UniProtKB/TrEMBL annotation:
The keyword Transmembrane applies. This is NAD(P)H-quinone oxidoreductase subunit 1, chloroplastic. It comes from Utricularia gibba (Two-flower bladderwort). InterPro entries: NADH_UbQ_OxRdtase_su1/FPO (IPR001694), NADH_UbQ_OxRdtase_su1_CS (IPR018086). It is a multi-pass membrane protein.
Length: 363
C-alpha cells in the first residue's frame, strides 16, 4: 500500500491535533490546581504577617520591619530558615510514623480547599456533598498529629497527640451538627447552593441571623479544631514543651507550622461561606453574576469582585481569631472537654431540632 504526500500530511496533522488535545487537557486540570495552591500560599503568608503585626500592636512593641517593606517578607525568611535547618529523627522512634504524620496533616487540610467557592463559578469542584466532604477530610488531620506524637518516642509528644485526638473528637460533633442545620436551611449540602440561598435576601439573608446559636457554636468549635488559644492544649509550651512538635525540626516542623495556618484559613473561609453570604453582595436581590453578565470582560470583573468580597469577610474573621489569642487564657483539659461534651453538644443538638421543626412547619 502506497501513501502519498497529502495523506502523510493529513496523518501528521491529526497526530498533532491529538497531541495538542492531550496537552490542553493536562493544562485544563493542572491550571486551576496550581492557581489555587498559589493563592493559598499567598493567603498563608498574609496571615503570618497579620498575626505578627497585630500581636506587636497589642503588646505595644515593634513587629518585623527589616525583612522587606513593613516586614512583609518575614514569613518567607522564616520558611527559608526552616528549609536550611537539619532534619533530625529520633533514634528510638518510629521513623515511618514520624515522617508520615506532618504530610497527612497538611494534605488533609489542602484537599478541603477544593470545595470552597471563592466567587461565582470560581470553585475547583462543586460537589453536592461539599460541606460534609470538608468535615470528613479535615477529621484526618488529628490522625497525623497522633502519628507524629506516637512516632516521636517522647512522653510530651505522645501526650500532645492524645490531646489533639481528644480535642478533635470533642468539637467535631458540634461542628457537624451546625453544618447539618445550615444544610437543612439551604436544602443542599453544596457550598455554592448555600451561598446562593443566602444571596436572595442580601445582608439579612445571611445564616448569621437565621442561625445565631449555630454561628457561636461553629465559631468556638472551629477555634478548637484549629488549636488556637484558648484551645491550644496539644502544644501548650508550659506543660508539654511543644507538644507533638517537640522532636521535629527543619522542613517537617515547617509543615506543622503551615498546617496550623492552613487550617485557620479554611475555617475562616467556611465561616464566610456558611454564615456570611460568601461572595454575594449585602443588597437584596443583587447577585454578582447578574450584575456583571454583559460580556466576558464584565464576567471576569464580577469574579474578581466576588473573590475580593469573600477574602474581605474571611480576613475579618481572621482578625478576631488573632485578637482572641491575646485576650483569653488557656483552658484546662477538663474544662475543654466539659465545654465540648456537656455544653456545645447538647446546645447544637437543640439548635438542629429547632431548625428541623422550623423547616417542617414552613412546608
Amino acid at each position: 500500500m502506497i501513501i502519498n504526500t497529502t495523506e502523510l500530511e493529513a496523518i501528521n496533522s491529526f497526530s498533532r491535533v491529538g497531541y495538542l488535545k492531550e496537552v490542553y487537557g493536562i493544562i485544563w486540570v493542572l491550571g486551576p490546581i496550581l492557581t489555587l495552591v498559589l493563592g493559598i500560599t499567598l493567603g498563608v503568608l498574609v496571615i503570618v504577617w497579620l498575626e505578627r503585626e497585630i500581636s506587636a500592636r497589642i503588646q505595644q512593641r515593634i513587629g518585623p520591619e527589616y525583612t522587606g517593606p513593613w516586614g512583609l517578607l518575614q514569613a518567607l525568611a522564616d520558611g527559608t530558615k526552616l528549609l536550611l535547618k537539619e532534619n533530625l529523627r529520633p533514634s528510638r522512634g518510629d521513623t515511618h510514623l514520624f515522617s508520615i504524620g506532618p504530610s497527612i496533616a497538611v494534605i488533609s487540610i489542602l484537599l478541603s480547599y477544593s470545595v470552597i467557592p471563592f466567587s461565582y463559578r470560581f470553585i475547583l469542584s462543586d460537589l453536592s456533598i461539599g460541606v460534609f466532604l470538608w468535615i470528613s477530610i479535615s477529621s484526618l488531620a488529628p490522625v497525623g498529629l497522633l502519628m507524629a506524637g506516637y512516632g516521636s518516642n517522647n512522653k510530651y509528644s505522645f501526650l500532645g497527640g492524645l490531646r489533639a485526638a481528644a480535642q478533635s473528637i470533642s468539637y467535631e460533633i458540634p461542628l457537624t451538627l451546625c453544618v447539618l442545620s445550615i444544610s437543612l436551611l439551604s436544602n443542599s449540602s453544596s457550598t455554592v447552593d448555600i451561598v446562593e440561598a443566602q444571596a436572595k435576601y442580601g445582608f439579612w439573608g445571611w445564616n448569621l441571623w437565621r442561625q445565631p446559636i449555630g454561628f457561636i457554636i461553629f465559631l468556638i468549635s472551629s477555634l478548637a479544631e484549629c488549636e488556637r488559644l484558648p484551645f491550644d492544649l496539644p502544644e501548650a509550651e508550659e506543660e508539654l514543651v511543644a507538644g507533638y512538635q517537640t522532636e521535629y525540626s527543619g522542613i517537617k516542623f515547617g509543615l506543622f507550622y503551615v498546617a496550623s495556618y492552613l487550617n485557620l484559613l479554611i475555617s475562616s473561609l467556611f465561616v464566610t461561606v456558611l454564615y456570611l453570604g460568601g461572595w454575594s453582595f449585602s443588597i437584596p436581590y443583587i447577585f454578582v453574576p447578574e450584575l456583571f453578565a454583559l460580556n466576558k470582560r464584565s464576567q471576569v470583573f464580577g469574579i474578581l469582585i466576588g473573590i475580593f468580597i469573600t477574602l474581605a469577610k474571611t480576613y475579618l474573621f481572621l482578625f478576631s481569631s488573632i485578637v482572641t489569642r491575646w485576650t483569653l487564657p488557656r483552658l484546662r483539659m477538663d474544662q475543654l472537654l466539659n465545654l465540648g461534651w456537656k455544653f456545645l453538644l447538647p446546645v447544637s443538638l437543640g439548635n438542629l431540632l429547632l431548625t428541623t421543626s422550623f423547616q417542617l412547619f414552613s412546608l
